[in-house]
Design goal:
- Helix content is 44%, strand content 15%.
- The protein has 334 residues and is an alpha/beta fold.
- The strands form 2 sheets. Strands 1, 2, 3, 4, 5, 8, 9, 10 and 11 form a 9-stranded parallel sheet that branches.
- The longest helix has 21 residues.
- The protein is globular and about 60 Å long.
């Protein structure tokens, strides 16, 4: 199993941290993650949010690319339907060049209506837009002239340059666990990529459906389960819960307010740990190591961990990231 560190750059209104400190901390922690042996830096995207959720994945990935040497860079997920695919093809190629071929482009269709309204993108046709955008990305990265005529995009012959370092193109991850999303993932050669607020039970059901759809489409089932989890590891389990629960609740409230089908928020009752374990990796070393072993047994290939959650101080997130690395004994290239 590979391990990654997620950044969403959320700083809720009233937070004493502030975005300048948050961005500086993320860059420093990305460098630290590489030194500790993590395999991925994973960035996720939203727009026009009160907490400043990261709205510009490519500039952030480019910045991280220039201060790291080995660690993989991934988007998880870039909302492709809010962008023109030719522009994303160009920006992804630049990031792949800057990183010497370390980019994996994770994309999704989006679900928050306000983002589509604000970005002048049609919400109803987002499925067709995503399919056409994925086709255009692959054509763009070929380096050959091509024209495109679809129901959403229509443009004359163009050549997109520069080309990415990776051939034929950077790997694509396609997010979502609906039947349509999983069918698209199977068709375009993506592993299963659920969201951070989906329970273990829902994720396993999605993985099985993905495999079934790949067989139905006569495509080779793509190995891989990319699992994002909120995470906080501390010496004391109670302390870990005290720090993590407000952050998890903040994230779940945010996603629920956007219309995401999230499960009920984490409570502070005696069953809080059991509920946390369905969505997050929170606790002392022993408990978190047991959870990681559980994910490995379930077939997770890439475990992405968000230590720098909203309301969590950067120093606490850094300590948690380092503690997790020690308990898993991460090494470069693992």
């Amino acid at each position: 199993m590979k391990f990654g560190v997620i950044f969403s750059m959320q700083d809720p209104p009233g937070s004493p941290i502030g975005h300048p400190a948050l961005y500086q901390a993320a860059i420093e922690q990305a460098v630290g993650a590489e030194q500790l042996g993590y395999d991925w830096i994973n960035l996720t995207e939203h727009h026009v949010t009160a907490d400043g959720y990261l709205p510009a994945i490519m500039p952030m990935l480019a910045g991280i690319a220039t201060v790291t040497d080995r660690i993989g860079l991934s988007s998880g997920m870039l909302i492709l339907t809010l962008h023109h695919p030719l522009r994303i093809a160009e920006e992804a190629a630049v990031v792949d060049l800057l990183s010497k071929g370390r980019l994996t482009l994770g994309v999704a269709g989006g679900y928050r209506v306000l983002e589509f309204q604000a970005m002048a993108s049609d919400f109803v046709s987002r499925g067709r837009r995503l399919d056409e955008s994925l086709e255009i990305l692959r054509l763009s990265w070929s380096g050959e002239p091509f024209a495109y005529s679809g129901t959403v995009f229509d443009f004359p012959e163009v050549v997109v340059a520069p080309r990415p370092v990776q051939r034929p193109h950077p790997p694509l991850w396609i997010g979502g666990t609906s039947r349509l999303a999983l069918r698209r993932a199977a068709r375009f050669g993506s592993p299963t990529c659920p969201g951070a607020t989906e329970s273990i039970e829902d994720v396993l059901a999605a993985k099985r459906k993905h495999e079934e759809l790949a067989k139905e489409l006569s495509t080779t089932p793509v190995p891989g389960l990319v699992m994002p989890r909120l995470a906080l590891v501390a010496e004391d389990a109670q302390r870990a819960r005290e720090l993590a629960i407000p952050a998890v609740e903040e994230m779940f409230r945010t996603y629920a307010s956007w219309g995401a089908p999230v499960s009920p928020l984490i409570g502070n009752s005696g069953s809080a740990q059991d509920e946390l374990d369905r969505f997050a990796i929170v606790g002392d070393d022993e408990h978190c190591a047991a959870l990681v072993a559980r994910y490995a047994a379930l077939g997770v290939t890439d475990l992405m961990l968000q230590f720098l959650m909203p309301t969590v101080e950067p120093s606490v997130a850094r300590e948690s990231m380092e503690r997790f690395a020690r308990l898993i004994a991460l090494r470069p290239g693992v």
